[in-house]
Amino acid sequence: MEILTELFTDYTLRTVALGAALLGISAGALGCFALLRRQSLLGDAISHAALPGIALAFLLTGSKSSLVLILGAGAVGWFGSVLIAALTRRTPITYDTALGILLSVFFGVGLVMLTFIQRMPDANQAGLDSFLFGQAAALMQRDIYVILAIGSVILLLTVAFWKEFKLISFDPDMAETLGLPVRALEHLLTGLFVAAIVIGLQTVGVVLMSALIVAPAAAARQWTNRLGVMVLLAAVFGAVSGVSGAVSSSMAPNLPTGPVIVVVVSMIVAASLLFAPNRGFVFRKIREWKSGRALRVDAVLVDLYTLASQHASSDYPHSEQVLNVMSSMSGTAKRTLHLLKTLELAQPIDDQRWSLTPAGEERARKFIEEHYGGGV
Amino acid sequence: MTTDHAIPAEDLAIDVRDLTVAYREKPVLWDVDLQIPDGVLMAIVGPNGAGKTTFIKSVLGLITPAAGSVLVHGKPYQKNRSQVAYVPQRGSVDWGFPTNVLDVVTMGVYGMIGWFRRPGAAQKAQAIKALAEVGMESFADRQISELSGGQQQRVFLARALVQDADIYLMDEPFQGVDATTERAIVELLRALRERGKTVVVVHHDLQTVPEYFDHVLLLNVRRIAAGPVEDVFTEENLRATYGGRVAFVSALMARKGE
Amino acid sequence: MSASIEIQIIAVLVAVACALPGVFLVLRQLAMMSDAISHAILPGIVIAFLLTEDLSSPLLILGAAAAGVATVALVELLRKTGLLKEDAAIGIVFPAFFSIGVILIARFASDVHLDVDAVLLGELAFAPFDRVVLASIDVPKATLVMASILMLNVVFVGLFFKELKLATFDSALAATLGFTPVLLHYVLMGLVSTTAVGAFDAVGSILVVALMVAPPAAAYVLTQRLASMLWMSAALGAISAVGGYWMARWLDASIAGSMASTAGLVFLLVLAFAPERGLVSRVRQQNRQRQVFARDMLLIHLYHHEGLPEAEQECRVEHLQDHLRWERDIAMMAVRTAKRAGYVQDHAGLMKLSDSGREQARHALVHI
């Protein structure tokens, strides 16, 4: 509760939280398209590739204003994504290798530049290091404005080109035959993706920004089968993890922002994978267990019915051994028979023998009609 | 070879001239000429790697040919694009994509509603109507990940129907579908022909060619033969198309003769 | 021995040790696994350190290897559920592991020599100060560690060369022949983790990726034989290491960053100028092929229309543009190439096949 009060009263905290929320929203939303287009690791490459952009922007302008640094990061990040596409299309290098090379080499170049800057006589360089792991606490009001402005443009364009982005993500060939400029749209989408990454670098850091792209989308995917809902949910997850990470790291000393955000968002992913209705692991296990049980019940019912139909009366009793032999899941007939009893579909005649109840007979007949078209 | 040079270009649904396509300078299609008259049901057959899919994709401009031209009703494809609808192979998209049947079918009208606008009630109604034509109207709200192969295929067909085109290009619509879907597709093809539409289908099952189609293109990198089924679907042409697999062609022809 | 030489020796050892498993990562399209593993081993190291409170304990390497293999297993598990695609699983698992490691350091180990910058950036420059005496020879500890890891990698690749080759190029066949590609895969990933933890100290977690991916990728452009690829990767890695060191000296900048930059530069040079698959030679080949291809298309076009009534207009140079849909310069190039070879004669704009041209047209028809 104390945190909540502070969130609304403490100026720095409010600034930080607002910034983290904004970038969580745009990262989450754009991450959905990346996830569905199988570009989850592209974000990792682009965020690392942006490091030399930050250093270069500082070297060229001497300014540490976040707009300048973001523009530098964006330009070089965009160049990196173009390079990856070119390497994959025009050389024998595969996509994953192109990502690996670009990520590590650009990062290396960025480090060379950073160390170079650090040894410059001018002492104005401090703070660039925070781009590695992010430092939400250092967010200023004007940084928030930058994030807000770029984030709104990202979201606005995503909404404006919604159906086109959906179509090129699902079926680019179809988009092409409808006459859409698929290449241009892909460039636009990648551009928005790069923008969503670079506005988060100051807060989350280049090393971990990719997680804030992929993880909210992956979590959201588990809860819904609608792209629109998925994007909204991902934005919410992104914002929640952004805010809680930023807030807790600015409350506790020694806690870098990026890693805290990533841990929070990873917990959201884990919870979604486990507990999301329909797709979630737990629900799936329950469903499998239920359908397995239904299958066994029906199998034994049908067996009983088949046996009975060879005799005059449908309630003719049969022994467990015979059912065990007939059952495709041999050995489980006994357990299933007791289940049938609680469901009042079959009844024991004595220790060993069982017969169908009228309800059981009805269900068996229906099952046979549905699955065997009348005859067994 | 029968070429229909006599027919004026505007009366041809599709007029393909000297189409040559190469991947990495290795030809996949070589100098293919094909005139498809309006209102026919045409099968494209040929062995694997014969360039059937490539042919359709280059007609649609999805692949840039090394040479040749494609006219649709006498104009370049780019100008008459909206007259052509495409049914890609089922496996070409990710069916795990988070969307439902109605939404996929509605994608067919994205070309008509223009930028920045969302499909509205009218478009949804069109989509439902198209779904009804393939017997899938009760699946409108179904997740596409829950569809069987045949149902996926019918959704793709409905998506093409909603485009309200004159010409339909379909890539292996019969591939791996159940009997119900196969019947539904055949009925749909006939209904389209009755409405005067032109349908071109990449087809694998030689046996059903005479039953389902009235025209056929035999393709193996080059055009082997094209024209009405009764004229060109001959043992000689099939041998020329399928090369060494003579036994299989003979067996087929024997069955055809029965 | 001077510190400069010692640093270079360590750098070369690291580069070569990384290049060997890197070859298999690149060939199996698992390059990003090196990124995932080099990050994910951090919590393994930190936990092992918190337990032993000794930075030089071999348990740290064991912890790292365990964390690396756990990452691989977790990614595989997530992929198998069908809820996530493999790339998404990788993109979620390793940042989570790495973050846990960073937080553990920040909370519990920030006062000791295990700081986050070092993890990320390495500190090769300080390696010569941490020394051990072995058989009365005084060497930097890093030299010893990296030499052992390199030996381990060489022995592994040497012993299982045949199996690795088979599992890399045809894992189904390998399985039917009784090798267990899955086991080999995990051993390889364990090796990547071990190598990464050794290299980690020297060059940091991200630049390990440069050394594991860039030299093998360059070697892959140069050769398609596995054995050559292995030694070429090692050589290119060593060149990057030494070149990087001198670049760092010259710029007075991070050694690790310079090594990665040099590795990138070496990759770029190889990609551009490799004899067969390099960009320059491929452009040249493609131009030549395009000429031959256009020439043959022209010949076949002429051959098809030879003697037909429409030949008068089909076989004119100016007609090629609208009939074959060729750009003017491609059409002119085809005509020029065909004329130069003596396949075509030009009769005032109307082209006719020569005997050899007709022969070549038939030949081309058969061979397509």
Q: Care to give the gist of this entry?
A:
The complex is a heterotrimer of chains A (376), B (258) and C (368). Chain A is mainly α and 376 residues long.
Structure description:
The complex is a heterotrimer of chains A (376), B (258) and C (368). Helix content of chain A is 75%, strand content 2%. The termini of chain A are far apart. In chain A, helix 3 (42-61) runs antiparallel to helix 12, helix 12 crosses helix 13 (227-251) and helix 15 (281-309) packs across helix 18 (358-372). Chain A folds into two domains: 2-279, ABC transporter involved in vitamin B12 uptake, BtuC, CATH 1.10.3470.10; 283-372, Winged helix-like DNA-binding domain superfamily/Winged helix DNA-binding domain (Arc Repressor Mutant, subunit A, Orthogonal Bundle). Chain A is elongated. With 376 residues, chain A is mainly alpha-helical. Chain A is built from 18 helices and three strands. With 258 residues, chain B is of the alpha/beta class. Helices cover 34% and strands 25% of the residues of chain B. Chain B has ten helices and ten strands. Chain B has helices at 52-59, 101-106, 110-113, 121-133, 149-161, 179-194, 209-212, 229-232, 235-242, 246-257; strands at 12-23, 26-37, 41-45, 67-72, 75-76, 84-87, 167-171, 198-202, 215-220, 222-228. In chain B, the strands form two sheets. A six-stranded mixed β-sheet of chain B has the order 6-7-8-3-9-10, sandwiched between helices. Chain B has a four-stranded antiparallel β-sheet with strand order 2-1-4-5, covered by helices on one side. In chain B, helix 4 (121-133) packs across helix 5 and helix 5 runs parallel beside helix 6 (179-194). The longest helix of chain B is centred in the C-terminal third of the chain and has 16 residues, at 179-194. Mean pLDDT of chain B is 88; it is low at 1-5. Chain C has a two-stranded antiparallel ribbon. By secondary structure, chain C is mostly helical. The longest helix of chain C is centred in the last third of the chain and has 27 residues, at 279-305. Chain C is elongated and about 95 Å long. Chain C has helices at 3-27, 31-52, 59-81, 86-108, 116-121, 141-159, 161-169, 171-176, 181-203, 205-222, 226-251, 255-273, 279-305, 311-314, 317-323, 328-340, 355-366; strands at 131-134, 137-140, 344-347, 350-353. Chains in contact: A-B, A-C, B-C. The interface between B and C is medium-sized, with 16 and 14 residues.
